[in-house]
Design brief:
about 130 residues; globular; single chain; alpha+beta
Length: about 130
């Protein structure tokens, strides 16, 4: 079953696309097809979390440019404070149990789409105006 995910490319453009998980994973690492997942917001207590996907760092070797907007969006959403290179895809996640593990990937909710869009707008404006 497909669902909506977010894609932020290295130029900072945000798009919402349909295709969780197959198309999303392909967009995460288009050159090598080896995406790496990380938690942005953990799914807990029956709520949805946010899962990020990027190209495998061991494959980078200058293949992907820095993605400053995606780095700022992930940090603002409470995710890891790490530099992101290339495309970033974000989808929803849900846990099977109260403990939060294991989880499965799912579509972004409308509220998550609105949150990502609002944060992206704020980060983009700040980047355009300088620190």
């Amino acid at each position: 079953m497909a669902g909506i995910y977010a894609l932020i490319d290295p130029d900072g453009r945000l798009e919402f696309r349909d295709g969780v998980p197959d198309r999303m994973l392909g967009n995460s690492d288009p050159s090598h097809g080896i995406p790496v997942a990380f938690t942005i917001q953990r799914a807990a207590w029956g709520g949805n979390g946010l899962q990020g996907h990027i190209g495998n760092a061991s494959c980078l070797g200058g293949a992907y440019p820095p993605n400053r907007i995606a780095t700022g969006v992930v940090t603002a959403l409470g995710g890891p404070q790490e530099y992101i290179f290339g495309n970033l895809t974000i989808c929803g996640s849900q846990s099977f149990s109260v403990s939060g593990a294991p989880y499965f990937l799912c579509a972004l909710t409308e509220a998550q789409q609105d949150l990502i869009s609002d944060v992206h707008t704020a980060v983009s404006k700040r980047a355009a105006n300088g620190p």
